[in-house]
Design a protein that fits this description.
Number of strands: 10
CATH class of the largest domain: Alpha Beta
CATH superfamily of the largest domain: Nucleoside Triphosphate Pyrophosphohydrolase
Number of domains: 2
CATH architecture of the largest domain: Alpha-Beta Complex
Order of helices and strands: EEEEEEEHEEEHH
Largest sheet: 7 strands, mixed
Shape: elongated
């Protein structure tokens, strides 16, 4: 793998925003090729996947509907957000779940992945949340408006990748959930 590495010759931040910075680097490959590259420097992200079983035995997720400025429309997602400086991923996921839904629960790390290693340097972590409890109301940022809903697990899996669910982060979240559910099938099965 070492023969694939590139040496960083220079690096500078060229643009800053409230949620990410852009850096430009000059790098040289192991065989002498030289190039300029751009990297998006972002804090790590977290996703909370709140799971519960309804009284009728149907396994469900707590989800959110909100306006997203990227695509300019409403999407359906799990509670998520940025890890703040000095905060662990699990603490960030707990904070985001509480702020966005007013809920708490028992957190299990399902996995982590780089959103796009071609030009990003952050990691997003995915947490299953069980034993959820309503602790209070939402505490949203000034420009957030989130509607909290419950959706059967099988409906989310069936509809993933289309319509309200055409979000890459959601696809990853469901992938991590389904891998975990292979060893914990009760997360997907109906009980009577």
């Amino acid at each position: 793998m070492r023969e694939l590495g590139w040496r960083t010759d220079s690096e500078k931040k060229v643009f800053s925003t409230p949620i990410f910075d852009i850096s430009e680097m000059e790098r040289t490959s192991h065989d002498g090729r030289h190039g300029k590259f751009v990297r998006l420097d972002s804090p790590d992200w977290v996703v909370a996947i709140p799971w519960f079983r309804r009284q009728d035995g149907v396994p469900c997720f707590v989800m959110e509907e909100q306006w997203r400025h990227g695509p300019g429309r409403v999407t359906r997602e799990f509670p998520a957000g940025l890890v703040e400086k000095g905060e662990s991923g699990e603490d960030a996921a707990k904070r985001e779940l509480m702020e966005e839904t007013g809920m708490s629960g028992k957190f299990t790390l399902l996995g982590a992945a780089c959103p796009n290693p071609a030009f990003m340097n952050n990691v997003q972590s995915f947490f299953l949340v069980e034993d959820i409890k309503k602790e209070g109301g939402q505490s949203l940022d000034p420009n957030e408006e989130i509607v909290v809903i419950e959706v059967p697990v099988e409906d989310v899996i069936r509809d993933m990748g289309q319509g309200l669910y055409d979000n890459g982060i959601m696809m990853e979240a469901i992938g991590f959930f389904m891998r975990y559910a292979e060893k914990h099938p009760q997360l997907r099965t109906l009980t009577v």
